[in-house]
Design brief:
Distance between the termini: 33 Å
Mean pLDDT: 91
Radius of gyration: 27 Å
Number of domains: 3
Shape: globular
Number of strands: 19
Helix content: 40-55%
Largest sheet: 5 strands, mixed
Low-confidence stretches: 1-15, 637-652
Strand order of the largest sheet: 6-3-7-9-8
Amino acid sequence: MPEPAPVAASPSLGAARPGWPWWVAGLALGLVVLGPGLAPGPLLNLDLLVTPSIPVPNGIFGLGPALTQRVPFFALLAAGSWLVGGPLATKVVVVVLLAVGFVGASRLAAPSGGPLARAASGVLWAIGPFAVTRLGAGHLNLVWAVAVLPWVLPRLCRPSADVGRTFLAAALLAVGGPAAGTLGLLAVVVGLVVERLDGTRPWRPVAAVLASGAASLVWVAPTTVVLWAGARVSSAGDFSTHTGSVGGWGSLLAGGGFWQYDQQVGAVGVGGALAGAAVTALAVVGRRDLDRRWARPATVLGATGLVLAVASAVPGVRDAYRWLSLLPVGAPLRESQRFLALWVLWLAPAAALGGQRVGRALARRWGEGAATVAAAAPLAIAVALAVPGLWGIGGRLDPVTFPAGWARARAELASRPGTTVAFPWNEYPSLSFAGGRTVFNPAPDYLGGDVISSYDPLFDPAHPIQEQVDRRADVVAGLVEDLGEGTPVSGGLADLGVRWVFVAHEGGDPRYERLADDPGLRLAFRDPSVTLYEVAGWTAPAVAPDGSGHGLARRHAPLARTDAPAGSVLSMAGAPGWVQGWASPAEVTADGRLRTTDRGLLWFAPAPALLAIDVAILVAALILVWRGRYRESTRSSFEKPESLDSGQNGQLL
């Protein structure tokens, strides 16, 4: 079997334009992974929170209560939710993202890779253990990275070659938020280091860092604001990469090691370890056939990702990693296993090409049959690793139906708005209507409005940490302790400006049954799934110093309007940055609410700046795309058709 022809030089870093059969195959694989999830209905599992209506994440405006993991990607899902509903919009996006990731990874094995190698690369990357585990766990921001990374990897590996396109590549990844954006920033840093070692010219580290950093402001800026406003973060020790036994270390090589081990799909046990060793050995052999213009930085980047992934699991090193994650600048690093994406992205095409190279060696002695078997081996391993994730990821993507009581409560709250406390006081309750699966509490998204909910992951019950800006949650946590001691809590809830108490009948905690004996709570309704109480002592959403009630309108998250006089307390989460009028800062009360300093409109001061940053990045990206297309069309008009390298014109960035 002859050696493949060397890759011709081209201004573009990439591979052949994928034909429509590859896109069809990618979409088919996405549909097979989703499986029963294609049926109508919301999706709930761990962080997979797909409610009938997906709200725009408040983090886009720098507001909490939660951290900014969803920013800005969930704004796109919210737009789709407005058009066709949250479940359908999310399912369409997931299928498309898996298809884009499959096609992108298949291109990384071209042009030297044949169809078997390209298919193996696509399967191992897009529906392998790493990708489907993250999808099943609901980390859709990393599913975005699965789609985008293969297309931008060649550009990020040579960031100085075209700083404008480096900006575009980083901006695309940044849409996925901190989880995806940090992968892009790390790729730029590694790419610059390798460029320097290789003596690449031009070498423009300052321009490349500034470009990628500016593109990342779409998530860096709101994350900075939320942390400045008081959000707290659990340490990386709570999210350590799971290695377990010796077999666990081997499985890590194939995409295993998710910190919550019962959510890991594929790449487990002895089989996962053997598969990890096999694909790694093939990748070592096949790395020489990767496109030489980005092969070296991609190899270094993959090794860096692997080192970071294990950093939170290695004794001694993990203590330093945990310390770093507790720093404000280290918050995006707290869950290290996701850096394994960079390893798998290098592994997939390298292992696929390794099987092809082994096949060429065997062909000289054993003939074409042996070569075909060897070339097909990476695809066979990739399929074996992918099988556990097919058809709904072991039930994780089964649609659910919210009980009728939830819809009735939502309608009641919409007709008579007011601050709501959601019980059980648990960030991750087990929901009976979701098959008993542990789920990120859907009450705030489902009910809408101002909902106080727990964001304590309960890693250390002795030292609870509310991972949110809303300090009212600390007050409610104290009331829950009082409830456990049999103390009525209605007075404390009324003092906090709470109007409604929503209790989902999940978990069987007897504390919430005691609410029925609280004389300060009026029963609104009760059914087998939900109890809704109204706080008798609630006055109004805005209470003046003289005790009189006033209205509070808040149609948009960063804006609020009230006719209450100065000194009134508003039933909404307080945070530094709220301003009344032009320059009168609102005060944050001891219990976490806002106190007015004037009448009229309140607005969150960082929000306009954050929106301006988003618009500026979008405009800059559109200008760069337009200029790039103009340059390509101008250059093509002066080139003879036969001089074009048709195998290199399909690169996105």
